Amino acid sequence: MIEEQGSPAVAGEARHHRTIKSFVMRAGRMTEGQQRGLDQGWPKYGLDLADGLQDFDAVFGRNAPRTFEIGFGMGHATLEMAAAAPEQDFIGIEVHRPGVGALLNGAMTQHLTNIRVYSCDALEVLRDCVADASLDRVLLFFPDPWHKSRHHKRRIVQPAFAELVRQKLKVGGVLHMATDWEHYAEHMLEVMNVAPGFRNLAEDGRYVPRPDERPVTKFERRGERLGHGVWDLKFQRID
C-alpha cells in the first residue's frame, strides 16, 4: 500500500510553521479506469479539505462504526475491507492520484456506498475535518519507512501524530499500524509505548498477529516470498 502521508504538525502549529512532510508527491500515469474513477467517482465519493469539519453521519446518511485509513495506495485493501463490512464506513486518504482514481473506479464497479475519499494531506484532514472522539479505527498500513537516519524526522509516526490520533479516536478506538521494515516497527513501538492515553493490545507488549480484518496485499505476499517479515501493532485509546 502506498506510504505517503502528511505533516506531523498538530492543531495550529501547521498554520504557523513550515512542516516536514512524510510523503513525496509523485506524478503517475493514469490508466483509463483510474481517470474514469476520478471523473465519475469523485462527485459521488470525493471530499475536500476546504469543506472543513464534517458531519460524517450526514455524509454517509447513517451512524456506523467509522474507519479512517491513512495512505490507501491503489485501494485494493480498502475496497476489500469495505466490501466485507458493509455495516461500517471507511474514510480513505491518499495523495497519489492514480491510486485515488483506482479506488474510486473500484468503488463504482462494486457499487459500494460506505467509502469516502480525500486526496490531500491525511493529517490536515484529521485535524480540520474530523471531530474529536469520532473514529473507531485509524489505519496506517505500510507507511514510508524513511529508512535513512537523516530522513527519520519525516516518518509519520511521531509523538505529535500519536496525540492527534488519540484526540480523534473514541475511547476504546484502535490505531492499527503495519510495516514490513523491522526498524520502523521498533520506532513505532517506541513512540506509541510512551504516548499518553494508549494501551498496547499485544499480549507480549510488542506486536499482534496479523489480524484477519487486514487484507494481505500483493505487496505483502511478494515480501513473504522474499522472506520479509510484517509487523502489526494495535494501540487502543484508553482515555
TrEMBL record:
<keyword id="KW-0489">Methyltransferase</keyword>
<dbReference type="Pfam" id="PF02390">
    <property type="entry name" value="Methyltransf_4"/>
</dbReference>
<feature type="binding site">
    <location>
        <position position="148"/>
    </location>
    <ligand>
        <name>substrate</name>
    </ligand>
</feature>
<dbReference type="InterPro" id="IPR029063">
    <property type="entry name" value="SAM-dependent_MTases_sf"/>
</dbReference>
<protein>
    <recommendedName>
        <fullName>tRNA (guanine-N(7)-)-methyltransferase</fullName>
        <ecNumber>2.1.1.33</ecNumber>
    </recommendedName>
</protein>
<keyword id="KW-0819">tRNA processing</keyword>
<comment type="similarity">
    <text>Belongs to the class I-like SAM-binding methyltransferase superfamily. TrmB family.</text>
</comment>
<feature type="binding site">
    <location>
        <position position="121"/>
    </location>
    <ligand>
        <name>S-adenosyl-L-methionine</name>
    </ligand>
</feature>
<feature type="binding site">
    <location>
        <position position="144"/>
    </location>
    <ligand>
        <name>S-adenosyl-L-methionine</name>
    </ligand>
</feature>
<keyword id="KW-0949">S-adenosyl-L-methionine</keyword>
<comment type="pathway">
    <text>tRNA modification; N(7)-methylguanine-tRNA biosynthesis.</text>
</comment>
<feature type="binding site">
    <location>
        <position position="94"/>
    </location>
    <ligand>
        <name>S-adenosyl-L-methionine</name>
    </ligand>
</feature>
<feature type="binding site">
    <location>
        <position position="69"/>
    </location>
    <ligand>
        <name>S-adenosyl-L-methionine</name>
    </ligand>
</feature>
<dbReference type="GO" id="GO:0008176">
    <property type="term" value="F:tRNA (guanine(46)-N7)-methyltransferase activity"/>
</dbReference>
<feature type="binding site">
    <location>
        <position position="180"/>
    </location>
    <ligand>
        <name>substrate</name>
    </ligand>
</feature>
<dbReference type="InterPro" id="IPR003358">
    <property type="entry name" value="tRNA_(Gua-N-7)_MeTrfase_Trmb"/>
</dbReference>
<dbReference type="InterPro" id="IPR055361">
    <property type="entry name" value="tRNA_methyltr_TrmB_bact"/>
</dbReference>
<feature type="binding site">
    <location>
        <begin position="217"/>
        <end position="220"/>
    </location>
    <ligand>
        <name>substrate</name>
    </ligand>
</feature>
<keyword id="KW-0808">Transferase</keyword>
<comment type="function">
    <text>Catalyzes the formation of N(7)-methylguanine at position 46 (m7G46) in tRNA.</text>
</comment>
